[in-house]
Design a protein that fits this description.
The chain has about 525 residues and is an alpha+beta fold. It has 18 helices and 19 strands. About 35% of the residues lie in helices and about 20% in strands. It starts with 20 loop residues before the first strand and ends with a helix. Belongs to the YkuD family.
C-alpha cells in the first residue's frame, strides 16, 4: 500500500485543451484552427518565418521580442515548448506563477495569458498562439529578472527554472512571503542531506548475482551486505553491521524503506527494489528540486480550507482532510499513460449512490461492439441496457462504478468512484482506468463526507448504496478536490518517499533529457 503522508501542499495546475485538423505536405506538418496555424516538427525556416510573422502581426505589442522568442524554438524537434499533449505542462505553470509573483512586471496580453490557465474560459486559441504567448511571457519575465543580460536560449531557460547547481542557490532563490508551505522546507532539508551524500564517495551501485534471485529473510548473500549499507545511508538503518545475513534488523529497515516509497509492505527484496536503490543519488537530487518547484507554483488561496480531498497520482493515494486533520487515507488507481488522469483542482458538489454507468462512446466503439457481436446476451449478462442510443450499466454490486461516485464539474468529465475490482489495488503500479479515479475506500469516504449531514445515517447510506435506482445528493458545502503530481514527498517524521514518474512529467522537466541536439 502506498503511503501518502499528511501535508498541507496542494497543486492547482490548470489545463487548456485544443482540437485541430491535420494538414500535411512534403515539407510541413501543421494543424489548422480558424485562421491560425500550428506547426510541429517543421525544419522549414520559411514556414517558421511565415508563422511567426502572422503571430507578431496579430500580437503587435510583442513584435519587439520576436528574435528572442524565436530563438527558443531554434534547433528544436519537439514542437511546442509549453504543452504536454493537450494541456499546458508544469513548466508553463511554473513560468505563469513566477511571472504573476514578480513585482512591477508589465505583462503584455495578460488577459489572454490568464485565459490559458482559466479552465472556465471559453476563449479559443490555436496551439501556436498559446505556445508563443507563453514564450513571449518568458522573454518578458527573463528581461525583468536577468541582471546579467545572459543570452536567452532554451537550455538556459530550463536551467533558470530547474537546474540549480548548489543547494545554496536553491535556498537563495526562495523568499518566504508567507505563501510557502511546510512540505517545501521538508523537501529542502532532505535535499541538503542528498546533496551531501552526492558529494561523498559512499553511494556505490549495488552489484547483484546473475541471474538475480529474490532475497527473503534468513538469506545469505553479498547483495544483502550492499543493501544494508544502502539503507544505512538512506537512514532506514541506524547502523551498518556489514553482515550478509538477512536478519531481523534488516527486515525492519526493508519494511521502512518499502512503506515510505510505496512498495508492498513485505520483506521480499525483488530485482525492482534493487533497481530503485541503484537510481543515482544525482537523479534523486533532481527529483527533490522538481517537486520543490511544483510546490512553489501553488496558488496560496487553494490551501485555505479545513476540508478537502487530495489525490496524488504518482503515489496512487487519496487523503481526506476535515477540520484540518487527515481522517481517511485510501489507495486509488488512476488513468493509464494513454488515458491520463488530468492534474487539476475542482470542487466535489454531489455524491451519487447506486450510480448508472453511461459507457463512453469510445469504449462502446473500441471494446463493446465486438463483444456484443460475439455474444448476443452480453448486455443482459453484464446488467447493461440501451437508453436513447447510449449503452449504460444498471446500478448494482457489479457496476463498473461500484456503489458510489463523487462528482466535480470539469471539462474532461472525470470523477471519483468505487469499483468492484478490488484486487487491482494489490498491484504496486495502478494505472488501469480510462482517466477517472477509482477509490478503494469509496464507501468510507462517502460516510466521512456526510458526517455533517444528520439525515444521512449509516443505515441510510447503506440502503442508498444497495439500491436499484440512482440516488444523487447535492452537497450544501462543496468540498475542494486537488489532483496532484508529486514524485517525492516527506512525511511528518522527516522520511522522504520517491514515487514513480508514471506520466513522465519529471522527464519533461529534466534539462538533460529535454534538450535537443543541434
Amino acid at each position: 500500500m502506498r503511503t501518502f503522508y499528511s501535508f498541507t501542499v496542494i497543486l492547482g495546475l490548470s489545463f487548456f485543451v485544443s482540437s485541430f485538423a491535420t494538414i500535411e505536405n512534403d515539407n510541413l506538418k501543421y494543424k489548422k484552427t480558424s485562421n491560425t496555424i500550428s506547426f510541429k516538427n517543421s525544419d522549414n525556416d520559411d514556414v517558421k518565418e511565415n508563422i511567426s510573422n502572422d503571430f507578431f502581426k496579430r500580437y503587435s505589442d510583442l513584435k519587439k521580442y520576436k528574435s528572442e522568442v524565436m530563438s527558443l524554438y531554434k534547433n528544436r524537434t519537439l514542437g511546442t515548448i509549453w504543452y504536454d499533449e493537450d494541456e499546458i505542462n508544469e513548466f508553463g505553470s511554473i513560468l505563469y506563477q513566477k511571472a504573476k509573483k514578480t513585482n512591477d512586471l508589465v505583462i503584455p496580453y495578460q488577459k489572454e495569458i490568464d485565459q490559458l490557465f482559466d479552465s472556465s474560459s471559453d476563449a479559443n486559441f490555436s496551439r501556436t498562439d498559446a505556445d508563443m504567448l507563453l514564450s513571449s511571457l518568458y522573454v518578458v519575465y527573463t528581461k525583468k529578472n536577468n541582471a546579467d543580460k545572459k543570452k536567452i536560449a532554451y537550455d538556459a531557460m530550463l536551467k533558470d527554472f530547474l537546474n540549480y547547481s548548489t543547494i545554496e542557490e536553491a535556498t537563495a532563490k526562495v523568499e518566504d512571503d508567507g505563501n510557502l508551505y511546510d512540505q517545501y522546507y521538508k523537501l529542502q532539508d532532505v535535499l541538503k542531506k542528498y546533496k551531501k551524500l552526492e558529494r561523498s564517495s559512499k553511494w556505490k551501485p549495488i552489484v547483484t548475482e546473475v541471474p538475480y534471485k529474490e532475497l527473503r529473510p534468513d538469506a545469505v548473500s553479498s547483495t544483502i551486505a550492499q543493501v544494508r549499507t544502502r539503507l544505512y545511508l538512506l537512514g532506514d538503518l541506524k547502523q551498518d553491521s556489514k553482515s550478509d545475513f538477512y536478519d531481523r534488523e534488516l527486515m525492519d529497515a526493508v519494511m521502512k524503506y518499502k512503506v515510505r516509497n510505496g512498495f508492498k509492505p513485505n520483506y521480499i527484496l525483488a530485482e525492482e527494489h534493487i533497481k530503485e536503490m541503484n537510481i543515482p543519488v544525482s537523479d534523486k537530487v533532481k527529483t527533490l528540486m522538481l517537486n520543490m518547484e511544483r510546490i512553489r507554483a501553488i496558488s496560496p488561496q487553494l490551501v485555505n480550507n479545513d476540508e478537502f480531498v487530495m489525490v496524488n497520482v504518482p503515489s496512487y493515494e487519496l487523503i481526506y482532510v476535515k477540520n484540518g486533520k487527515v481522517v481517511l487515507t485510501s489507495s486509488v488507481f488512476v488513468g493509464s499513460p494513454l488515458t491520463k488522469t488530468t492534474i487539476f483542482n475542482g470542487e466535489i458538489d454531489r455524491i451519487v449512490f447506486s450510480p448508472y454507468w453511461t459507457v463512453p462512446q469510445s469504449i462502446v466503439d473500441n471494446e463493446l461492439k465486438l463483444k456484443i457481436a460475439a455474444d448476443k446476451n452480453y448486455l443482459a449478462e453484464h446488467n447493461m441496457e440501451v437508453v436513447n442510443g447510449q449503452v449504460r450499466q444498471k446500478p448494482g454490486p457489479g457496476n463498473s462504478l461500484g456503489l458510489v461516485k463523487f462528482m466535480f464539474p470539469n471539462p474532461d468529465d472525470i470523477y471519483m468512484h468505487d469499483t468492484p475490482s478490488k484486487t487491482l489495488f494489490d498491484f504496486e503500479k495502478r494505472t488501469f482506468s480510462h482517466g477517472c479515479i477509482n477509490v478503494k475506500m469509496a464507501k468510507e469516504l462517502a460516510a466521512a463526507m456526510l458526517q455533517d449531514y444528520p439525515e444521512w445515517t449509516q443505515e441510510k447510506i447503506d440502503k442508498a448504496m444497495a439500491g436499484k435506482v440512482e440516488n444523487s445528493f447535492k452537497l450544501s458545502k462543496k468540498v475542494p478536490i486537488y489532483i496532484c503530481y508529486f514524485t517525492s514527498l516527506v512525511n511528518e517524521n522527516g522520511e522522504v518517499g520517491f514515487f514513480p514518474d508514471v506520466y513522465e512529467k519529471d522527464a519533461e522537466l529534466n534539462p538533460e533529457k529535454t534538450l535537443t541536439a543541434n
